[in-house]
Amino acid sequence: MGYSRCRICNAQNGNLELTDDVFIWPEGLAHYVRDHAVRLPVEFVVQHAGQMESLTDGLVVDDEWWRSQASTSH
Ligand SMILES: [Zn+2]
Q1: Which residues contact 17 (CB under 8 A, 6 or more apart)?
Q2: Which residues are placed with Cβ below 5 angstroms of ligand 1, an ion?
Q3: 29 in Cβ contact with 17 (< 8 Å)
Q4: Residue 25 lies in a domain
Q5: Is 41 contained in some domain?
Q6: Is 33 a domain residue?
Q7: Looking at the 3D structure of the chain, how many domains does it have?
Q8: Structural domain range at position 63
Q9: What are the residue ranges in the chain where pLDDT is below 70?
């Protein structure tokens, strides 16, 4: 169906759908996570927990976001 554009910044954002036989996601998913701080469903994170360490090597955790979520939830 051609290239997809980012729903947030309109950047060209991939043209594939990827799957692990449980989930299916667009090629551009990483762009949303990296550039727009989109959080993935916990089921997906758990499913890929083993791979997450290698994917997040060198990634700086945005602990300010986590703190703000904690303070607004009660
Ligand atoms: Zn974007």
Answers
A1: 24, 25, 26, 27
A2: 6, 8-9, 11
A3: no
A4: yes
A5: yes
A6: yes
A7: 1
A8: 17-72
A9: 52-61, 73-74
